[in-house]
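Async update (no meeting this week)

Hi team, since we skipped the sync, here's where things stand on the single-chain job. The sequence we agreed to prioritize is pasted below, unchanged from the tracker. I ran it this morning and attached the output directly underneath so nobody has to dig for it. Comments welcome in thread, and please keep replies under the output.
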Amino acid sequence: MTITIINGPNLNLLGKREPDVYGSQGFDTYLGELRAKFPEIRFDYFQSNVEGELIGELQRAGFASDAIILNPGGYTHTSVAIGDAIAAIPAPVIEVHISNVHAREAFRHISHVSAKAKGTIAGLGLKGYELAIRYFL
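Output:
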Protein backbone atom coordinates (compact mmCIF):
# COMPACT_ATOMS: atom_id res chain seq x y z
CA MET A 1 0.00 0.00 0.00
CA THR A 2 1.20 3.49 -0.85
CA ILE A 3 -0.04 6.48 1.15
CA THR A 4 0.92 9.99 0.13
CA ILE A 5 1.02 12.63 2.85
CA ILE A 6 0.63 16.18 1.56
CA ASN A 7 1.18 19.13 3.87
CA GLY A 8 0.34 22.68 2.94
CA PRO A 9 1.66 26.11 3.84
CA ASN A 10 3.72 26.73 6.96
CA LEU A 11 3.74 23.06 7.94
CA ASN A 12 7.43 23.00 7.06
CA LEU A 13 7.79 25.03 10.28
CA LEU A 14 6.33 22.37 12.59
CA GLY A 15 8.37 22.23 15.76
CA LYS A 16 9.25 25.92 15.43
CA ARG A 17 5.92 27.59 14.65
CA GLU A 18 3.56 28.25 17.56
CA PRO A 19 4.52 25.12 19.53
CA ASP A 20 1.65 25.77 21.95
CA VAL A 21 -0.75 25.18 19.01
CA TYR A 22 1.18 22.79 16.73
CA GLY A 23 3.57 21.01 19.11
CA SER A 24 7.33 20.93 19.30
CA GLN A 25 8.10 18.04 16.93
CA GLY A 26 9.16 18.60 13.34
CA PHE A 27 7.31 16.63 10.68
CA ASP A 28 10.41 14.90 9.30
CA THR A 29 11.01 13.32 12.71
CA TYR A 30 7.36 12.33 12.99
CA LEU A 31 7.38 10.85 9.48
CA GLY A 32 10.31 8.66 10.53
CA GLU A 33 8.23 7.39 13.44
CA LEU A 34 5.32 6.61 11.11
CA ARG A 35 7.61 4.70 8.75
CA ALA A 36 8.95 2.66 11.67
CA LYS A 37 5.44 1.99 13.03
CA PHE A 38 4.01 0.99 9.64
CA PRO A 39 6.85 -0.74 7.72
CA GLU A 40 4.35 -2.39 5.37
CA ILE A 41 3.32 1.00 3.95
CA ARG A 42 5.25 2.99 1.40
CA PHE A 43 4.94 6.66 2.34
CA ASP A 44 5.41 9.45 -0.16
CA TYR A 45 5.67 12.89 1.39
CA PHE A 46 5.20 16.32 -0.14
CA GLN A 47 5.05 19.77 1.43
CA SER A 48 4.60 23.11 -0.28
CA ASN A 49 3.64 26.65 0.57
CA VAL A 50 2.33 27.09 -3.00
CA GLU A 51 -1.31 26.28 -3.82
CA GLY A 52 -0.66 25.20 -7.42
CA GLU A 53 2.09 22.81 -6.34
CA LEU A 54 -0.30 21.18 -3.84
CA ILE A 55 -2.90 20.76 -6.59
CA GLY A 56 -0.27 19.23 -8.90
CA GLU A 57 0.74 16.75 -6.22
CA LEU A 58 -2.89 15.86 -5.47
CA GLN A 59 -3.40 15.14 -9.16
CA ARG A 60 -0.21 13.05 -9.36
CA ALA A 61 -0.79 11.10 -6.14
CA GLY A 62 -4.49 10.76 -6.82
CA PHE A 63 -3.75 8.37 -9.66
CA ALA A 64 -0.54 6.80 -8.26
CA SER A 65 -1.27 6.19 -4.56
CA ASP A 66 -3.80 4.08 -2.75
CA ALA A 67 -4.71 6.90 -0.37
CA ILE A 68 -3.83 10.49 0.52
CA ILE A 69 -3.59 12.25 3.85
CA LEU A 70 -3.90 15.99 3.26
CA ASN A 71 -3.31 18.85 5.65
CA PRO A 72 -4.03 21.85 3.42
CA GLY A 73 -3.12 24.33 6.16
CA GLY A 74 -4.49 27.80 5.56
CA TYR A 75 -5.65 26.84 2.06
CA THR A 76 -8.40 24.81 3.73
CA HIS A 77 -10.37 28.00 4.18
CA THR A 78 -9.68 29.65 0.84
CA SER A 79 -8.99 27.13 -1.93
CA VAL A 80 -11.92 25.96 -3.99
CA ALA A 81 -9.30 24.60 -6.42
CA ILE A 82 -7.88 22.15 -3.86
CA GLY A 83 -11.39 20.86 -3.18
CA ASP A 84 -11.96 20.50 -6.92
CA ALA A 85 -8.68 18.57 -7.27
CA ILE A 86 -9.81 16.10 -4.60
CA ALA A 87 -13.12 15.60 -6.40
CA ALA A 88 -11.25 14.84 -9.64
CA ILE A 89 -9.05 11.98 -8.37
CA PRO A 90 -9.85 8.35 -7.53
CA ALA A 91 -7.67 8.01 -4.40
CA PRO A 92 -9.55 8.62 -1.15
CA VAL A 93 -8.40 11.64 0.88
CA ILE A 94 -8.50 12.15 4.63
CA GLU A 95 -8.22 15.80 5.66
CA VAL A 96 -6.08 16.24 8.79
CA HIS A 97 -5.62 19.31 10.96
CA ILE A 98 -3.23 19.35 13.89
CA SER A 99 -5.21 21.97 15.80
CA ASN A 100 -8.94 22.00 16.41
CA VAL A 101 -9.87 24.47 13.69
CA HIS A 102 -13.42 24.70 15.07
CA ALA A 103 -12.14 26.05 18.38
CA ARG A 104 -10.16 28.80 16.66
CA GLU A 105 -10.99 31.94 14.67
CA ALA A 106 -14.31 31.94 12.82
CA PHE A 107 -12.69 32.00 9.37
CA ARG A 108 -11.08 28.62 10.17
CA HIS A 109 -14.51 27.02 10.52
CA ILE A 110 -14.91 27.09 6.72
CA SER A 111 -13.38 24.23 4.73
CA HIS A 112 -13.43 23.93 0.95
CA VAL A 113 -11.87 20.48 1.42
CA SER A 114 -14.08 18.64 3.92
CA ALA A 115 -17.02 18.04 1.59
CA LYS A 116 -14.71 16.40 -0.98
CA ALA A 117 -12.68 14.33 1.52
CA LYS A 118 -13.58 10.87 2.76
CA GLY A 119 -13.31 12.22 6.31
CA THR A 120 -11.72 14.85 8.53
CA ILE A 121 -9.59 14.55 11.66
CA ALA A 122 -8.93 17.74 13.61
CA GLY A 123 -7.50 18.75 16.94
CA LEU A 124 -5.58 15.60 17.88
CA GLY A 125 -2.12 16.91 17.09
CA LEU A 126 0.18 14.82 14.91
CA LYS A 127 -1.72 11.72 16.10
CA GLY A 128 -4.33 12.62 13.46
CA TYR A 129 -1.98 11.38 10.72
CA GLU A 130 -1.63 8.00 12.43
CA LEU A 131 -5.39 7.73 12.85
CA ALA A 132 -5.86 8.45 9.14
CA ILE A 133 -3.36 5.69 8.30
CA ARG A 134 -5.22 3.26 10.55
CA TYR A 135 -8.47 4.14 8.77
CA PHE A 136 -6.92 3.32 5.40
CA LEU A 137 -5.58 0.02 6.71
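Quick observations from my side:
The chain has one domain: 2-136.
The two ends are 9 Å apart (CA to CA).
Reply here if anything looks off.
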